[in-house]
Amino acid sequence: MSTKINARSPFFIESVEPTVSLGIFDCTTANPLNYAVSSAGVITEPTLLEGTIIDRTATSFAANTSGSPISRSVTYTIKIPDNYSNTSDGSIDCVQTEDQPTQSPSEDPAQNSNCPTFAGTISDITGLTSTGTSIDLSTYFTAGSGATISGYQVLSYPSLTAISSSIVGNTLTFTTGSSCATATIKVIALNSADACTVDSNSFTVSSTCTDALDCSVNGVNLIGGSISATGVISNPSYSIAHLDHIEDSSNVTITSVPANNGASAIDVTLTFVFTVPDGYTNAGAELECTPPAFSQPTTAAPKVNLECSDATFSGFTITPQGNIIAGTVSYLGNTGVTPTNITTESGDYKYDPVASSTSRTISVTFRVLNTAWLNYSESVTCPVDLTQPPSDNACDFATGDYAISEQGFSQVSYFCDDGARYSILRQVNGTPAVGNTVCYLGSPYNGNSLFYAYATAQSQNGAGNIGTSFSVMQIDSSGTILRITTTNCQGDDGGDIQY
User: What pLDDT shows up at residue 14?
Assistant: First the structure.
């Protein structure tokens, strides 16, 4: 965007507004959350704070009947958004790993006759149009002997955008208004009696298409990509198809290239080989796309000042309590450098807890330890964008102070036995009302469902046979106030419960 400033008519000054760089885009910036694998092998894809998933190495796993959890990993290829310092790299790979739980007896069709079953194979759908194509799911799914099928869930990889789905009863219908659209689908039958589910085979749905997929901007559309001095390949982003492998100029499959230890940058030609998805006239074929040669820099460190865009920040996180966990800094010539200082936007060293995910920008200071950089031994301070997760501790947000007795009883009337008096000296936080949490030293107070006397201020002899009424609350093991009552040991020793 350009802006004209009237300097002195008829002369004008024309300036271009600078593009603000958001720093390096990495897996911490993408912040994939909620990746999971069910015991049946169904993958819940992660949601991203930034970026777009364009490819993945798996869409499902086999059911886990081993009796023990199995570690399951999927590598997600994520397109780097605009305005990051490494946007030209095209994409990054982020690995998500979680344990797949073993099937419980109620989830295992072999042990639970209530489980629905799936038989047959749902065929691929081609030539989809706006008039739609339907599948009768009752021909593939059968309810268990003691339950019914309560509904179905449709999973799509990638998420359905150009292709729409709807379910009425047992009829699943796909429609589209787009040509050359495709998606991989899996259908899950949900049981009405328990958690047992069963999923279909994976099948593809594709719309009418008279085109062959090619490497043009209307096809695979490779954008960006790079090769580091040490030979690490950053794949370009792409719009369609699944990247099968990469070949060098000799048609040899590779995952990296040799380091460039020469005195200057060199050009490297790579070919990216894709599998054409269903829906295109060349479906199933290999498509070779060769972008312009990449310039691979030399491993010789440049004689320039090291700047923030030259560094990679790894492992920096913020805990739900607001504490900053230090990571490491890497740059050409050094890896795993420990920062010398980390602060918040206000110069503090930690954040207050928050009730919802909150974007933060910390300042990381580190020393340049490699003599090849002009600013060797100097300190550099760089912004690093992170997300602080919400705290699940209600006491992080408790307001107000009051006191409770150290002594608790299973019944209110026990405060009145033997003419005893009790002090109310334990200082707690929160608001004394039914449903609120009693907080002690920053954590919920374990009341074991006993009754405790309480008052707005500490009192040496504030409960028991004191001649006047006093207040009592029942606190459960999670610190929640279950009931509030008042009692007077000179008369009403049972208390009047107030809700």
Answer: 43
CB proximity list for 229: less than 8 A, separation 6 or greater: 259, 260, 296, 297, 298, 299, 332
Phi, psi of 149 (to 5 degrees): -90, 115
Q: Is the peptide bond before 389 cis (omega within 30 degrees of 0)?
A: no
How far is Cα of residue 105 from the mean position of the Cα atoms in its chain? 30
Q: Residue 438, class by beta-carbon neighbours within 10 Å (0-12 exposed, 13-18 middle, 19+ buried)?
A: buried
List residues bridging with 117 in a β-sheet: 142
Query: For residues 363 and 68, what is the distance between their CA atoms, to the nearest angstrom?
Result: 43
* Segment holding 473, helix H or strand E: strand 470-475
196: its two tokens? 């047992």
Choose among 165, 175, 163: nearest CA to 129: 175
Q: Output the pLDDT for position 188.
A: 92
Q: Which residue, 207, 288, 206, 202, is CA-closest to 243?
A: 288
Q: pLDDT band at residue 283, thresholds of 50, 70 and 90? A: confident
Specify the 3-state DSSP secondary structure of 29.
helix
Contact 408, 416 (CB under 8 A): no
Judged by phi (left if over 0) then psi (alpha if -120 to 50, else beta), residue 480 lies in beta
Are 373 and 333 within 8 A, CB to CB? yes
**Residues 348, 277 contacting (CB under 8 angstroms):** no
Can you give the pLDDT at residue 13?
42
Residue with tokens 């370009």: 236
The answer on pLDDT for 330 being more than 50 is yes
Average pLDDT over residues 8-30: 60
Provide the 8-state DSSP code for 54: E
For 26, the token pair is 């990495």
Q: Which residue has the tokens 């344990």?
A: 99
Task: Choose among 205, 41, 206: nearest CA to 118.
Answer: 41
Q: Is the pLDDT of residue 163 over 50?
A: yes
Whose structure tokens read 């334990």?
Answer: 426
C-alpha of 400 from chain center = 34
For 100-110, what is each residue's pLDDT tens digit? 999 888 888 88
116 closest CA partner among 197, 186, 49: 197
Residue 31 and residue 149: Cα distance in Å, rounded?
36
